[in-house]
Amino acid sequence: MNSVKQKRHQNLKYTTRRRAERLLKDWANFSFERFSRTHPEIEIKPPATFFTAKDKFDEFQRLLRTAWRESDPYKFKMLCFRFMTLYRGGWELGPVELAVFHFIDVRDRALRCKNPDCRAPYFFRTKKGQEYCCPKCAIPAQRAAKLRWYEKQKEENK
Known about the structure:
mainly alpha; two-stranded antiparallel ribbon; 7 helices; elongated
């Protein structure tokens, strides 16, 4: 096994996959205030006096959301590494960096909810073929599918 990959997996045992996914999902979906309350252990220090922590958080959130939607694997990895270097300004391995490495590993499970009215559209797929973040978001699509089936049955029975 490659030594860099081996180090990543050794460090990930201290940051669980569930915790890493929750951190990324919350960072992509929550406001600065809610994220700060939910994850007080994550410090977001502004780089200079004219930036606030909220401005830096918004920039990170924009980068993370862009990476989440990116289909090109090369651009996705570059956005992830840019996120990490902006966060710490270096290559220290803290919980955020480990979460980003996990994000790169599970890229195929990171999706955006297909419900346009979803309040937290960024999520990690837990089932094969999952397109919606939760059963509540899938209800409109299920209703539409049932209506199409009903209309088709009605046409066939005429």
